[in-house]
Each structure stands twice: as C-alpha cells, then as structure tokens.
Amino acid sequence: MQAYQDMVYSTAARMTGNPAQAQDIAQDVFLKAYEHFGSLRGSATAGGWLKTVTTNSCLNHLSRYRKRWRFFSELRRDDEEGDDPVIDVAVPDTLFEDLAATERHRLVEQALAQLPAHQRVPLVMFHFEEMAYEDIARALSVSLAKVKTDILRGRARLAKTLADAGRSSGT
Amino acid sequence: MKSDIEAQQQRLERLIGAGLAEQPPLQAPSSLQARVLSELTRRAALPWWQRSLRHWPLAMKLAFFGGALIAGRLLIGGLAWSRASQAAAQLLQPGSVLASLQSLSSACVTMGELMQRVADVVLHQVPALWLYGGIGLLLTMYVTLAGIGVTVYRSLDNA
Q1: pLDDT digit string (tens) for A12-22?
Q2: CB under 8 Å to A3, separation ≥6 — which residues?
Q3: Which of A60, A110, B38, B45 is the most exposed, fewest CB within 10 Å of its CB?
C-alpha cells in the first residue's frame, strides 16, 4: 500500500479536486485491492490495476454530479459541439519559471482544483492518465468534439490562472 | 488566421503538458493507511452473517442455497396445490403467454382508439385559438422554467 498510496491519492485528488473525497476514494480503492490481494500480490500490473480502479471510482463518484453539469454545460455551450472549434487563447511565454519548484507545484495543483469539473476531469485524464481523446469521450459518455474543446478551454484557463498567480507571487 | 490559432493551441498544449508532467505525485495524508487498516479490522470483526455471501463459511453457503432451493420448491408445490395455482400453471403454459400477448395488444388497440377520440375532440371541438394559446402557454412556461434553472445553475456554479 505504501508504494502506491501517493499515486492513488494523487489521481483521486486531481480528478475530484477535493482532498476529502480523494481520501474516501483512495480508501475504497485499497479495500478493493485487499479483496483482490491474492491476484495482485507480486503482480507487475498491480500499479495499472490500481490506477484504473481509481479512475473508474472517481468517474462513478462524479457521475451523479456529471449528469447535472453536462446538461447545463451543453445547454449553455452549444458552440463547443463543432467538429473544429476555433478558440482564440492567449498563451503566456512561460509558466513562472522564476518561481521555486515547490511553489510552482503548489500553484499548479491549486489552479487545477479551481477548474470546473467538466474541464478538469478530461484534462487530468489526458495529461496525467495519458488517455486518448477517444477513450476519454467514451469514459465520460460525451462527444469527442466536446472532450477536445473542454480540454482546450481547461488548458487556457489553467494557463491564465497560473500566469495571474505567477504575477501576484512575483510581486 | 485559423492556422495561427491552431499553432497557438499547440503551443499551449506543449506548455501545459510540460508543466503538468513536472508535477510530482501528491503526498497521501498520513491518516490514509490508518483509515484503511481500521476499516479492514472493522470488517474482519463483523460476524459472518453481516458480511457478503462470498465471505460466508462453506457450510453456511451450502445450507443457504439448499434452503433456498427447498423454499422455492415448496412455494411452487404450494401454488400447485392451491386454487390460485391453476392460474399460475396456466401462466406457465405456452398458450397462455400468447393469450397474454393478445390481451396486451387489444389493450393497446383500445388505448389507441381512445387517444384518437380524444385527439378528434381536441382538434374539432376545441377552438383553434384556445388550442394554439394553450400550446404557446406550455412552451412559454417550459422556456421560463429552463431559463430560471440555467440562471440558478450558473449563479451557483460561479459562486
């Protein structure tokens, strides 16, 4: 458990954006792992198994909220459903390279947690879980175009939040 | 213009991707391990009948399934002995399934006829102005309620 607890907790915390929920999910994941201890002990795929179970647990946890936000987010963002969304984003040159690594890591986690769930979840699945757009769309039961747009908007929002945070930290 | 935006989006992807790739895993709270262990201890201390069937002793599993079989058999036997069993037995016959389907289809036909009569009355006896007014009112109420819902959701979402 010690070898994987940070990985499981990180995945849950980044997907839910909530440390208390992440701890509950991580606990459930390790209880499930205990039930499969016989097949997981010494297995080279134990890490992958834990990661998959964590991701699925987070999606199950979020699904009851997801139905609500998907309805309203799609209602208010019809323009996101295009095949080729053209979104003009302001890209900063760097993400506060002059800050110390620890401070930078803290700001990134903070900015991630501030993203709305419909942008944070696919963004985390893409960048941290290294899932393909198609797999994310399937897992979230949304269109491929929406996944791409949500990730793009999430990146833009993250960059803006980080740029703002970097400026205020630098002053 | 579009290619400029695409290039900018790709640059953003690289920048964010590189930034996130540098992130170390978050440190799990020290209480996590203790929580898991205490939950495992609590579950292990539960008596077998409060745990899932998978964790029951083999003898109890066998007794449970045997008991369930006997109970099922008794129930079916009891039904066969009672007057109600005649209806139950008929239900199990292939012919009676067809009869059920037939009565279901006749119920559907009756329902369809009823709907047709209602539609007939509504279309021919209710003045058109009332009809369109009613539809307009329903649509207005629907749009208003959806609008209020979206506004409330946006307000709560942005809060």
Answers
A1: 999 988 899 99
A2: none
A3: B45
